[in-house]
TrEMBL record:
<feature type="transmembrane region" description="Helical">
    <location>
        <begin position="373"/>
        <end position="394"/>
    </location>
</feature>
<dbReference type="GO" id="GO:0009103">
    <property type="term" value="P:lipopolysaccharide biosynthetic process"/>
</dbReference>
<feature type="transmembrane region" description="Helical">
    <location>
        <begin position="236"/>
        <end position="256"/>
    </location>
</feature>
<feature type="domain" description="Acyltransferase 3">
    <location>
        <begin position="11"/>
        <end position="344"/>
    </location>
</feature>
<feature type="transmembrane region" description="Helical">
    <location>
        <begin position="207"/>
        <end position="224"/>
    </location>
</feature>
<feature type="transmembrane region" description="Helical">
    <location>
        <begin position="262"/>
        <end position="285"/>
    </location>
</feature>
<feature type="transmembrane region" description="Helical">
    <location>
        <begin position="78"/>
        <end position="98"/>
    </location>
</feature>
<dbReference type="GO" id="GO:0016747">
    <property type="term" value="F:acyltransferase activity, transferring groups other than amino-acyl groups"/>
</dbReference>
<feature type="transmembrane region" description="Helical">
    <location>
        <begin position="35"/>
        <end position="57"/>
    </location>
</feature>
<keyword id="KW-0812">Transmembrane</keyword>
<keyword id="KW-0472">Membrane</keyword>
<feature type="transmembrane region" description="Helical">
    <location>
        <begin position="331"/>
        <end position="352"/>
    </location>
</feature>
<feature type="transmembrane region" description="Helical">
    <location>
        <begin position="142"/>
        <end position="162"/>
    </location>
</feature>
<dbReference type="InterPro" id="IPR050879">
    <property type="entry name" value="Acyltransferase_3"/>
</dbReference>
<protein>
    <recommendedName>
        <fullName>Acyltransferase 3 domain-containing protein</fullName>
    </recommendedName>
</protein>
<feature type="coiled-coil region">
    <location>
        <begin position="406"/>
        <end position="441"/>
    </location>
</feature>
<feature type="transmembrane region" description="Helical">
    <location>
        <begin position="174"/>
        <end position="195"/>
    </location>
</feature>
Length: 641
């Protein structure tokens, strides 16, 4: 049996693994680079599905016997050393330097070992407040290993049963395709815009389509049976198909954001099908793409892609917990993190994963007889790390709950959202009932000034804001400024103050945690359709992820040139996209005459005492500065009209 096509295919696969792991790491380092880098995960799933199915039939079709026990043993030796070491090494670091992450670590460890961590994440996943309170889990990405583990356990058993009952490959292919399509449809059905997509992102049932597409491909396009010697014209066709499929893959990786509904309503399935086509091209011995993807760099990265994937999150989380001003070093810090990820991966690959993957009992017995001094020191270091990691698992059983979800910030935002919900609906009803459309801009005439001056003297309001730079005349005037505000958690944190400053019976403040720009389009369109979108629109978005000029342009187009947009720039030094967001806003202000950027970032610079520990959300005193500054800037802009 000729094995060369098989070997060429596997080597060519290193390029695909490289694309996948680079996309995932770059997305986590800076979503503005690989906006759809998370699409690297379907690449890994497709590879797994193809290789396992191809291996099974390559064995039984040539008269061999597929050993389930040997298969499981090889999977354990291949996957568990790296997985256990990343868990134990991370646990060792946590118990020594970052004890606030100990809570639930015991459950994280056990569920990863049992290959059910993805479901544990669905029911026990981290909240928004945990992610922004220096409490982000370094294990979030390990959900993929559990799905693959579940696949490795169940799929070979099904293949053995299919083979035993002589089920034809065509029917197995049909089964794979039907279940794959059903999985993609199920994902689309469960997806609800504006609702946390964790359930469908982590669920085995909603991510199964990528793996099964790989399985189906192996049934109709087995690597071992692909022959060389295609006609020149057919080679061209094959390579052009490869080019087009790769181009579409890259286009989706660079353009589709994780908040885009299209991703869950067929986008991820389309990407998987496209990748499946490219895999088919790479698998063929006459394809030029196999040679292009088989270079030494890709081979190195591909052979270590598992470790690079494993260690990316722990390195980034631990590094950024010590160096929090990420936005001030958008290039240097990511470079350092990538170097650290590579170094840790190389150490694990050479001294943990590879030795244990090929170890025999005789090797263990003879280790201290034949090993060098350096090998013994390394073994001792690894043993100490592992023992400390085991201690962290035990310690985690009694670790206190950081209770971030009931922090002062979380409680305030929850309280504001509940109080604002009723007021918002009442304000919308009041605006709908208004006989005249809102056409007042809030610009002050001489008569208005006299009226505000008299009211300031006779009936002063909101006097607590005066020490934050607002005069009593300003405070009276704000009650007549029509406003629709849409924002994220920073605005939600200050929504109670905004509703004090403006007329809460006529002003709409719509703010929510984790909100990104894409979600605001539907919200603004809804208010516009209802006829309650004010002449002044306040936007507070960008904390949770970057956006580009085109996306900002969609907001400006929707709002229209007759309304004025006030956009609060972001103070989020713990995230790499701070400068990206503020840079886009600065450029946009020159492009759109009806856009005013409120420089909260510049105003708050150096005032760490205005923020909670996350250095993103204003504390009670900072919230007063935040809302007062925004209000002053709106009034200043109105005076210039």
């Amino acid at each position: 049996m000729n094995k060369s096509p098989k070997r060429r295919f596997i080597t060519g696969f290193d390029g695909l693994r490289t694309l996948g792991v680079i996309g995932v790491i770059m997305y986590h380092l800076n979503p503005n680079v690989f906006s759809g880098g998370y699409l690297g995960v379907p690449i890994f799933f497709l590879i797994s599905g193809y290789l396992i199915t191809d291996h099974f039939f390559n064995t039984v079709d040539y008269g061999g016997s597929f050993s389930l026990s040997n298969f499981y043993l090889k999977r354990v030796k291949r996957l568990y050393p790296g997985m256990l070491f990343v868990l134990l090494a991370s646990g060792a670091y946590i118990v020594l330097f970052l004890k606030n992450l100990l809570y639930h670590f015991d459950q994280i460890f056990v569920t990863n070992v049992l290959n059910v961590y993805n479901w544990w994440q669905i029911f026990n996943g981290q909240s928004y407040f945990e992610r922004f309170a220096n409490n982000e889990s370094p294990f979030t990405h390990l959900w993929t290993l559990s799905i693959e583990g579940q696949f490795y356990i169940i799929w070979p058993i099904l293949l053995i049963l299919f083979s035993k009952f002589h089920v034809k490959k065509g029917r197995i292919f049909g089964f794979s395709l039907i279940v794959s399509i059903a999985s993609a449809i199920w994902m689309a059905i469960l997806f609800k815009p504006g609702v946390d997509p964790s359930r469908i992102y982590y669920g085995t049932d909603t991510r199964l389509f990528s793996i099964l597409l790989g399985c189906g491909l192996a049934l109709v396009w087995p690597a071992e049976k692909l022959k060389e010697g295609l006609k020149k014209s057919d080679k061209w066709k094959l390579n052009i198909v490869g080019l087009l499929s790769l181009a579409l893959m890259l286009l989706m990786i660079f353009t589709i954001k994780d908040s885009d509904p299209f991703l869950y309503r067929g986008g991820m399935f389309i990407f998987s099908v496209t990748t499946c086509i490219f895999i088919a091209v790479v698998a063929h011995p006459d394809s030029m793409w196999n040679s292009l993807l088989s270079n030494k760099v890709f081979h190195y990265v591909g052979s270590r892609s598992y470790g690079l994937y494993l260690y990316q999150f722990p390195v980034m989380i631990f590094f950024e917990s010590k160096f929090k001003n990420v936005a001030d070093h958008p290039i240097l810090y990511p470079v350092i993190e990538v170097i650290l990820i590579v170094l840790v991966t190389e150490f694990s690959f050479r001294f943990v994963e590879q030795p244990l993957a090929h170890a025999k009992w005789s090797d263990v017995k003879n280790f201290f007889k034949s090993s060098t001094g350096i090998q013994r020191v390394l073994a001792l270091v690894i043993a100490l790390i592992s023992i400390t990691g085991c201690y962290s698992v035990v310690k985690a059983v009694s670790a206190p709950n950081p209770n971030v979800n009931h922090s002062q910030l979380a409680n305030k935002i929850n309280k504001n959202e509940k109080a604002n919900k009723k007021k918002k609906q009442q304000a919308i009803e009041n605006l709908k009932k208004a006989k005249k459309k809102q056409n007042a801009t809030g610009k002050m005439s001489a008569a208005d000034y006299a009226r505000y001056k008299k009211a300031a003297k006779d009936h002063p309001i909101n006097t607590e804001f005066e020490k934050y730079g607002l005069t009593q005349i300003d405070l009276q005037r704000l009650k007549d400024v029509p406003l629709t505000a849409v924002g994220d958690s920073v605005m939600a944190d200050g929504s109670d103050n905004f509703l004090k400053l403006f007329d809460d019976k006529k002003v709409v403040v719509d703010a929510a945690v984790s909100r990104q720009l894409a979600a605001s389009l539907d919200i603004l369109q809804k208010y516009k359709d209802q006829g309650v979108l004010a002449p002044n629109v306040l936007i507070g978005l960008g904390t949770n992820g970057p956006f580009n000029m085109q996306q900002l342009g969609q907001i400006m187009s929707l709002v229209g040139p007759q309304r004025h947009v006030y956009w609060i720039n972001v103070h989020v030094p713990t995230r790499p996209w701070e400068k990206t967001v503020n840079g886009v806003l600065s450029q946009a202000q020159s492009k759109y005459k009806n856009l005013t950027v409120i420089d909260w970032n510049g105003y708050s610079n150096g005032h760490t005492d205005w923020f909670y520990d996350d250095n993103v959300h204003p504390n009670p005193d900072g919230s007063m500065y935040y809302t007062s500054f925004v209000a002053k800037e709106i009034l200043k802009s109105l005076d210039k009209k």
